[in-house]
Write a structure and sequence with these properties.
Order of helices and strands: EHHEEEHHEEEHHH
Radius of gyration: 18 Å
Helix content: 55-70%
Number of helices: 7
Strand content: 5-15%
Largest sheet: 3 strands, antiparallel
Number of strands: 7
Structural class: mainly alpha
Shape: globular
Distance between the termini: 31 Å
Strand order of the largest sheet: 1-3-4
Length: about 220
């Protein structure tokens, strides 16, 4: 069930939340404008809207599972029981756009063939860039309580952040990059590409959930989580 919640206790139990939200808002608006000017309206929708929808479901499920929570934000959205700040969903769209384009730029320098293998290389690089970004971002966020990990979670941690979180970042950005680039390079009309990018979220999301779930089970089986 979808709902929108307005929090009356902005900044509660957090540090420096207002500057963080302000920074993400500015960065998101900048990349939206940049994408619009460079790629046009329809490609910008393809780059940003699917990941916004996908991460709304993924983040809401993560909060509902009790693994982590967000406190002190203003606007929350929920689709499967967990309340997620709107700004977090927008931040995910920036993460994908930035990491995917960094992957494109990096791989194009060493592998020029426009084929499926190049898409795998680009998506892998994008996922690795995403992990590097999160290795910086998540410990800072945890320290300032921008999001709070459940302290009872076991397994390997990096600055109190579960290692599975970083693996999740890679899986999400990797598969969303593959889906986005495949649609971008298809021969369909721009309008149909938008439609496919939205309707294919269920397929991409299911793959992400299955792969990440298998990795979690593997970690549990080996005693790493």
């Amino acid at each position: 069930m979808f709902f929108i919640e307005i929090n009356q206790n902005f900044g509660e139990h957090t540090r420096l939340l207002a500057p963080f939200i302000g920074l993400i808002t500015i960065v998101w608006l900048f990349f939206i404008y940049y994408s619009y000017k460079k790629y046009g309206t329809k490609k910008t929708i393809i780059y940003f809207l699917p990941i916004i929808i996908a991460t709304l479901f993924i983040e809401s499920a993560g909060v509902a599972s009790g693994r982590y929570l967000y406190s002190g934000y203003i606007i929350y959205l929920s689709v499967v029981g967990g309340a997620v700040p709107l700004i977090i969903i927008l931040a995910w769209s920036v993460n994908l756009f930035l990491c995917m384009n960094m992957g494109k730029h990096f791989i194009s320098k060493i592998y020029q063939k426009r084929n499926y293998l190049q898409i795998i290389f680009i998506s892998t690089a994008a996922g690795l860039f995403g992990v590097c970004l999160d290795l910086l971002e998540d410990p800072i966020a945890h320290y300032n309580s921008w999001w709070i990990w459940e302290t009872s979670l076991n397994g390997i941690k990096f600055f109190e952040v579960p290692i599975l979180n970083f693996i999740g970042w890679f899986v999400l950005i990797f598969f969303m990059s593959i889906a986005t680039i495949l649609i971008e390079r298809s021969r369909f009309s721009e309008n149909r590409k938008i439609l496919i990018s939205i309707t294919s979220i269920s397929i991409t999301g299911t793959i992400i959930f299955i792969i990440h779930g298998l990795i979690v089970r593997l970690f549990e089986f080996t005693g790493l989580s």
